[in-house]
Request: fold
Amino acid sequence: MEVKRLKLKNFRNYSEETIEFSPRTNLIYGDNAQGKTNILEAVYLAANGRSHRAKTDTQMVRFGEDYAKIELEFADKNRVYKIVIGILPGNKKSVKINDVPINKLSVLVNYLNVVMFSPEDLELVKGSPRMRRHFMDTSISSLSPRYLSDLVTYHKVLAQKNNLLRSARLGNKKASDNIDVWNIQLASAGVRIMKERQSFVAGLSNEAMQIHKDIAQSELRIEYSPSFELDILNSDNPEMNYLRKLEEVKQREIENGSALYGIQRDEIKFFIDNNEAKIYASQGQQRTVVLCMKLALTEYIKRRRDEYPVLLFDDIMSELDEKHRLYLADSIRDKQVLLTCTDREESKGAKIMKIENGKVFAE
Ligand SMILES: Nc1ncnc2c1ncn2[C@@H]1O[C@H](COP(=O)(O)OP(=O)(O)OP(=O)(O)O)[C@@H](O)[C@H]1O
Ligand SMILES: [Mg+2]
Reply:
């Protein structure tokens, strides 16, 4: 896949700008706070329907304006597409693909795939489990609309269940009875989510292990470590097993006043030469793991979609040492990448653009 042209109107610190991309490396450089990340954010938004960092859509509207519009032309191996996203007053969003309005954001998933890699991702190994779930969820959602809708349903039901658990803790008998109904729904979405996560981690792990061996000459192992043991999937009726587990812990959850078990507590574990990376890995080792995960994800998407995603690398080169930089440079050579950095670097064949105060100057 390849992004060709991005038009921004009132997006972040851009008033009006058009950016043309090369099908290979695009080097986007400039001082801090000039608008480099904003460009990657706009591309990410067109791919996923949401920002990778903004909590609300309105944040992306240029100060003092009441709407923003981004227009992205991109191509897969068959044809050219245009996605137009409008951010309107009241935190509303409109999306059009080739001039046809779409009303479900999850439809976007079938078009453009991107892999974002930014300095915050370096926390993936040692950060909270939430980060690792977020990695699974955004990655799988960008390939499967079904997963995304299961996840949304699951979290809505979980919020209801938590309300009941709070009441049940205060002695409300009816609330306690009603929990069972929500548990049935949680089991059904929960099992589908577990299966997807299991196959995602398995699909990533060989590739990541191989890359890791190349860079670090040591053994990386990645494990999906769900809240309920994986065994529950290996039977004729995983939903029944999941439900049974929820019933077993029901009393404990009531005493706690909120849910303690389920896919909202899942984890990914990394081991380097059999030592758990979260506990033992050095800074450099953590970076290597994250780099391996991002590159493995790129290959995983290629396998699923039969095309490479567009890579959005935000200011990460400065975070990596020489060896990692060289490895990365080599593995992105045949892919489209939008790479931001603060200093202009020599990069053979790259399109180089300087960003200054919301304006783009192509060399
Ligand atoms: N809604 C908005 N309207 C106007 N300006 C905004 C808006 N949101 C963010 N900005 C500004 O856009 C500028 C550029 O942000 P961006 O994150 O793209 O910087 P950057 O070039 O990536 O910088 P760094 O090198 O520090 O990461 C910042 O000064 C920020 O305050
Ligand atoms: Mg930035």
Notes: The mean pLDDT is 95. Residues 122-305 form a domain with the Glutathione S-transferase Yfyf (Class Pi); Chain A, domain 2 fold (CATH 1.20.1050.90). The chain is about 40% helix and 25% strand.
